[in-house]
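Hello,

I think I submitted the fe (iii) ion job twice by accident. Can you confirm which output corresponds to this input? Input:
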Amino acid sequence: MRRQRIIIEGIVQGVGFRPFIYQLAARFGLAGSVCNDTRGVTVEVEGEAGVLARFVAAIRSEKPPLSVIQSVDTQTIPVQGTTGFKILQSAQDKTRRAQISPDTFVCDDCLQELFDPIDRRFRYPFINCTNCGPRYTIVTGIPYDRPLTTMADFPLCDDCQSEYIDPESRRFHAQPNACPACGPQLQLIDADGSPVASDDPLSEAIRRLKDGQILAIKGLGGYHLAVDASSQDAVQELRRRKQRDEKPFALMAKDLVTVQRLASVGEDEARLLQGVERPIVLLQKRIDHSLAESIAPDNRYFGVMLPCTPLHYLLLQNDFEALVMTSANLSDEPIAFEDGDACQRLATVADAFLSHNRRIHTRTDDSIARVMADRPLLLRRSRGFVPRSIALPVDGQSILAVGAELKNTICLTRGDRAFLSQHVGDLKNLEVYDSFKQTIKHLQSILEVLPELVAHDLHPDYDSTRYALEESGLLTVAVQHHHAHLASCLAEHGVEEPAIGVIFDGIGYGADGKLWGGEFLVGDLSSYERVGHFRYQPMPGGDLATRQPWRMALSYLQSSYGEIPAGIKAFDGIAENELRLVAQATLKGINAPLTSSCGRLFDAVASLLGLRQQVSFEGQAAMQLEMIADPTQSRPYPYLLSCDDDQIVFDPFPLIDSIIRDHSAGLPAAQISGRFHRSLAMMIEEVCEEIRQRTGLSLVVLSGGVFQNCLLTEMALERLEKSGFKVLTHSLVPPNDGGLALGQAVITSH
Ligand code: ZN
Ligand code: ZN
Ligand code: FE
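Support: Only one job matched these inputs. Its output is below.
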C-alpha cells in the first residue's frame, strides 16, 4: 500500500477536472480525495503502487477536453488507511497559480441535448457543461466560481443545483450552468430600443434575416452584425451602413459540408475550423459559390467560422447557406459588447437586436487563422485562445508589456508563463484606449500579478508608450520594435539561442530614429544587432503614405529615375497639381521621413500595377498583391545588394524598373506579382547566406506583418530550407504587431 499526493497545474479548474478524478479513482478502486486549490488541483490517493502509477498515467491520457495540464507533481506521503473517495471544499493558499479556461464551442453532449425534443434544455440557447461554454468573457474575478462570473445574476433552480453538486453529473461545478427555468433569456429588440413582443424571439429573428434585415446578434465576446450571406442586397446594405469599411465580412456556416460548398477546405483547415476555439479561417473561395460577391470583394478568400455558441447553432439550423457575421462596430471603433452601448452605437446600422441578459464582462473579438506551410497561423489571437498561456524558457519577475499602437495586445508574465491578452485594437481610438487600460487591469486581477516592470515600444508617439511612461507608475524598459518581433517568434518556439531575424513589416521605430520595416537582425532574447536592411526611401506625407500607396510609387520612381517617367497609369486618378507638389516636397525632404519598410515596397508595387491607390486599412494593397500573384512564376527580377558601413543594403531599383517595363508591355499583373514575390524570397536567402558566412548562424526567424503573406513565406521557407537553414515561423502567436507584446515581455525578462 502507498499514498501519493498529486499536484496538477495548468487549466484544471472549471473544466470538469474534479469529477473526472473522482470517476477515475472509482474505476481504479482507489481511496482518497481531490480538491481545487490556488495552484490547480491536488489529489491524494491510496492503493497499490502499480495501480497508482496507472492512475497517474490515466490522468494525463484521459484528461477532460478543455483542460491543459502543465505539470503533474507526485510525492509519496504516509499511508492513512482511508476508505472512499471525496471531493473536498476549495483550500486557500497564498500563491494563486490556477488558470482560467478560454471560451469554447458547444460540446457534442450538449448539442445532442439542444436538439432533443424531450430534453429540458431543448432549443435552449445557453446550454453548457463543464466541458464547454463561456469562461473568460464572463469572469469578473477569481477564484473562478459562479459569484465571480456574470452568471451571478441567475440563481440556480433545483434541477440545475442538483446537477451542480452531483460529482457524477457532466455539470458538476459547471459555473455557467443554466436552463430555461433559471438561466438567461433571449430578447429581440427593435432599432429604436423597444422590445419586440414575441414568445419565440429566435424564430422571429430568423424570419427577419430571411427578409433581408440586418440583425445585431449578441455572441460570446461581443455583438456581430448578421445578414443572409446569399442576399446581394442585404450584404450591400450592410456595407453601406457600416461606412467606408472595405474589410471583408466574416461568414458563419452550419457545418463542414456547407463550408466545402463555399470554399476549398484542406485537412489542416478542417481541423482549424472544427477546433474548440472556433476561429475564423481564411479559405480559398470556390468559383461556383452561391454567396454575394460584396462579402469579400477583390479577395480570393472567404473568412469562415463554424457555429460557436448554441445560439449560433439554432440560428443556422436549417435556414441559411451562411450568415455574414461581422464584428458589430463602425469603422475603427471597438466591437460593441455592452447592451445599452450596442443599441446606441448600432442604431443606424441594425434593424433589430437579438440580445440576451447574460452580461459580457470582457470584450473579445473573433480569432482569425489561416493555414501556411501546412501549419496553422494565427493572424489574430483572441476569443477561444485567450487567456491560455505560452511557456517561457525561464522563470522571472512579473512584467507587463504594453504592445504596439495598431492591432494592440498586451502581455503579462507570471513565473515561467506569458499571458497574451485578447486583441485590443488600434489605440488611436479613444474607446479602444480605454479598453486597453481595462484589459491591463482585468488581466492583472484574474492572474493575481502585480508587474514590477513595464516594457514598451521605442516609438515615442505610441499611446501604449505614453501609458507606460506616464500612467503605469512602473520602471520602464524600451524595446526596439523589430527585436520584439524576433523575440516573439523565438519565445513561441522556446528557443534561447541567437538567430538571423528576417523581420519585415509596415513600420516600426528604429534605433536610429528612422522608420524601419525591412530588417535583417542577428539577435536572441536579450540583445540584437542590425546587419542589413532595405534601402532608406522617403515616405511622402509620412503617415499619409500608408493610406495612399501611390505616394510610395512616386517615391520609388523619383529615386530610381530622378524624375517621374511619363505615362505611369497609376497616377491617372491623382491631380497633376498634387502629384507635382508631393514630388517637390519629397525631393526637398519636407514631410518625407525615411523608411526601410518592406510593407511600403509592397504598397508601391501594388500601386504601379494599378491595383489600388487608396487603402482603408494598413496592408490592404499588399494583401491584394498577394491575392493576385501567380505562384508558378519562377524567374526573379534583378535587384541590388550592396554593403554600406558593414550593413547589407537591399536596393529594389532594378526591380522597380523591370516591373514598370513589364507592366507597360502589357504583361499580366498576376505574372508580375508572382515574379516580385519570387525576387524577395531569393533576396532573403541571399542575405541570410551572407550573414551565415559572417556569423556561422544557420537558424532563421521569419517575423513581422509581411509574413502573414503565405506566398512569400512559403517561397522563402522552401529556398532557405533547401540551403540548409533551420527556419522558425509563427503559429500560435501572430507575426504582426498582435504578437509584439510577447517579444517585449521576453526581452525585458532577459
Ligand atoms: Zn457541454
Ligand atoms: Zn435551471
Ligand atoms: Fe511590426
